[in-house]
Amino acid sequence: MKDKMHANIELDPTQILVMGFASVILIGTILLNLPIASQDGRSIGFINALFTATSAVCVTGLVVVDTGTYWTTFGKTVILILIQVGALGFMTMATMFFILLGKRISLRERLVMQEALNQNSLAGIVRFTKYIILGTFIIEGLGAFFLSFRFIPEYGLSKGIAYSIFHAISAFGNAGFDLIGEGRGLTPYVEDPIVNFTIWFLVIIGGIGFSVIVDIINQKRLRRLSLHTKMVLLITGTLLITGFLLFLILEWSNPKTLGELSIGGKFLAGFFQSMTTRTAGFNTIDLSQMTIASQFLTIVLMYIGGSPASTAGGIKTATLGVIVFTVISVIRGREDTELFNRRISRDIVNRAITVAIIGITLIIVVAMVLSITETGFTFMEILFETTSAFGTVGLSLGITSELTVFGRIVIIFMMFAGRVGPLTIAFALATRQRKHKGMIKYPEGKILVG
Fold this sequence. Notes:
- This protein has helices at 2-9, 13-32, 46-57, 67-70, 73-88, 90-101, 107-116, 125-155, 157-172, 193-208, 210-219, 227-251, 263-276, 292-304, 317-331, 346-373, 379-390, 405-420, 422-429, and strands spanning 337-339, 342-344.
- It is mainly α.
- It has one domain (8-429).
- The chain has a two-stranded antiparallel ribbon.
- The longest helix is centred in the first third of the chain and has 31 residues, at 125-155.
- The radius of gyration is 22 Å and the shape is globular.
């Protein structure tokens, strides 16, 4: 009888992931709601604490209060820890502690790690996790080292080191939290090459995915790279260059964004904007002053996001790549989706289309709801905020702190859905009957399309 009850309450790996992220968010909410976390010694309130904790764990960067001036050292430390846990994933952090304590990692824990890291096989999953942990600390350490050349002279030794570490972790985690204060973001450093190049490096490396990084290190030659790695590098490079050129064209003469900058500053800011829309969340220009075309371009890039098994959100570059090459294959009259002399299975194509449709559906529904409940904002501001939350980007046109309680709760849901993944949530909530799919096949029917 007990075995049957245990089987009934046994959770799938996807369900464990959802509950794990929710648990970390709840702990962070409790800590940030303590009076010791705020400068004025008063509780920020449960909803605002929940919003901040969700934004940190989901590595989004949307905030209802200014991170640099509102929180105490304790509050900032809690946010930093939440960012690190959210970026690596709670199972990766748990694995690190298991390894340090010498605890054996069970098969069930390995299955959860496989789901969390979006891997196809259990083989070498623990070793892969070790690479992730070690690589993360090395990359964040390098980032903090280079940022210290700017922050230590400006803020002093101890504060400069703290700022360097915080922004390095936030950048590699694609979190977008900053401590500059007064809601300025990184605008004071719009033409600073040290800050720009360091943040670029951290965000791009964090956004391409751990699988890609390990594959590049192991293979070293382009022709030996996996199909996934080639796809991610192709789509990531294309989006970065395309976004960079379009932002330059659209904002070159805009006096409120790039117009007053030097030639070099325009190129730095243009590429930064193209890079940051890939779920990074930092900004070196005032986004609310961009042209409508640039704001819409930002929405499109935020929806796409980063790459699978990375710290980024969105539908992912690989998802876009599969859909694009499927369209190309259909136009060319090919039966299968093909690229780099390889065929992509129909199951992967279906998964990509499902992720894209769930994502756009969430954005449409939530944007419609917020357009009804959040009066006083333009639809562009609402759509921008909604997409930013789903893509765990953190960019905003300045309306986050003005949202109603209901609006903040909705955005909290979107950040959580964007980080955990729309498909993961769908699987976690689905019944176990899905295991029996394919047992019955109906006669084929014809539908006119187009």
